Amino acid sequence: MSYATIRRLLASTSFRMALLCAGVVVAAFALAALGTWLVTKVAAERTARERVQLEMSLLQGEVLQFGPEAAIVAIQLRARLPGAYRYRLVDGQGRIVAGDLPIDTRDPGWSMHYAPETPDGGVSPDFVVLSQPLGGGGYLAVAEDLEHSEWARYAVLRTLLWFALAALILSLAVGYFVSQRTLRRMQEIFLTMERVGSGDLAARVPARPVVHESDLDGLGRNINAMLARVDALVRNLRRVSTDIAHDLRTPLTSVVHDLEAAAKPAQPEVSKLLESAQRRLEGVLRTFDAMLRLAEIEAGTARSRFTDVDLAALAERVGDAYRPDVESAGGRLDVLAPEALHVRGDPDLLAQALANLIENALKHSGERPCIRVKGLQTGQETMLIVEDDGPGIPHDSHAEVLKPHVRLDGSRTSPGVGLGLSIVAAVAQLHEALLTLEDAKPGFCVKLAWRVN
User: Fold this and answer.
1) Beta-carbon neighbour count of residue 86 at 10 Å?
2) Do the bridges between strand 370-377 and strand 332-336 make them parallel or antiparallel, or are there none, so unpaired?
3) Cα distances (Å, whole numbers) of residue 57 to 54, 184, 208, 304
4) What's the order of all strands across the beta sheet hosting 126-133?
5) Helix 147-197 crosses helix 3-11 at what angle (to 10 degrees)?
6) Please, are residues 21 and 175 in contact by the beta-carbon 8 Å criterion?
7) Measured between alpha carbons, how far is 389 from 398 in angstroms, rounded to an integer?
8) Which of 333, 329, 312 is nearest to 321 (CA)?
9) Quick one: which of 58, 56, 50, 176 has its CA closest to 105?
């Protein structure tokens, strides 16, 4: 299991809930084990006291009925039996006359004792001891080694521990498989959202049968319903916008043709006015063309036309088309792309973006513009760069110039509608390329960078 998978698993809410449940189960087993230990300890001591009390009564009866010698014989016989009690019979002179209990318990009554260390360095379990005085200054002590009853307590504890371990493993296993299923479902939802964010409004979360629907399936169904409504609204808006643009394009084109026809026999003053009106209408038509082009790019329909594109060849082709215009303005256009640079994309849209950048540099670089188009291949990126030696754009205005119809104060008197860089930004987003605006010192620099897979 990779580190990334472990991180995703630990970040999963379902797996965290499984860990929490496993912790609760283990804590419950731990409390049960502690309670079992305490209860069985008390029960074992009470049972041992009852048995020792009975044994003491029997031996005292032997002493009273037959004398101390009978008690000695009884102790010797009983000490040989498996699981026997431990005895200590002391006469009036302080001598141990029977038993092997290594604990001196002269004080009458009950007591708990630990035996001294055994020869191998171990320590025996605790004893519950009952001591009673005898006539003549002696005493009798009877003890039971609680080890005989503790094996059952340890067996219960071991069983609880094994069950706790099994419950922990089972909880983690169930949590892992449930989390994997949840993560796969969430990944489907995330990928759908990414596709929608990239412009594919037809993307939908994979559906599951309603009979087996979970909460995530219900979420996916609601997301699909929302996306269907958004898709319908966007399609309707695009249709209306496109219809309006086409409806206006036709009469405006007719007006341009009429102005061309009216300008031929007219007087010079009228011809100038007609030419001015014609230029304005042509500007309006270009605006509509740019708006329709931008709407098409943002719709994401061009993804179906993606193919392998050589940026070096594309830069040479577009550069050759604009080089005469740049040279006629007294400038120069250099294309530096020494090797093939391949990316996936729509060649027409990439050519449109590069043409917009060159036109933007030609308009705003002043007299004798120097424009450089570069293609670069690094270890991780494929880049297309356009630089000029003009006044550039202030850094705090870089984000603004990428918005549609935004024109800075210095460029309001020049032709244009403020859609050139907006189309470049839309093309970059469609092709998942990073668009960067920089200061070329002097001039302006625009970079399009594709990550190398």
Assistant:
1) 20
2) parallel
3) 5, 74, 78, 101
4) 96-98, 86-90, 139-145, 126-133, 109-114
5) 100
6) yes
7) 17
8) 333
9) 56
- Assign a CATH topology to domain 215-298: Helix Hairpins (1.10.287)
Residues 157, 23: Cα–Cα separation, whole Å: 18
Spatial contact of 125 and 76, defined as CB atoms under 8 Å apart? no
**What ranges do the domains of the chain cover?**
23-151, 215-298, 304-451
Task: Please tell me the CATH code under which domain 23-151 is placed.
Answer: 3.30.450.20
Record: fold of 304-451: Heat Shock Protein 90 (3.30.565)
Q: How far is CA 1 from CA 7, 41, 224, 286, in A?
A: 10, 45, 33, 57
Q: Are 397 and 359 in contact (CB under 8 A)?
A: no
Retrieve residue 35's tokens. 């309670």
How many CB atoms lie under 10 A from the CB of residue 316?
Answer: 15
Amino acid at 94: G
Which residue is it, tokens 């002043």? Answer: 366
Amino acid, single-letter form, for residue 189: I
Looking at residue 107, the DSSP 8-state letter turns out to be: S
Has this prediction a pTM greater than 0.85? no
Q: pLDDT tens for residues 355-407?
A: 889 988 888 877 788 999 998 888 788 999 999 888 888 877 777 777 765 65
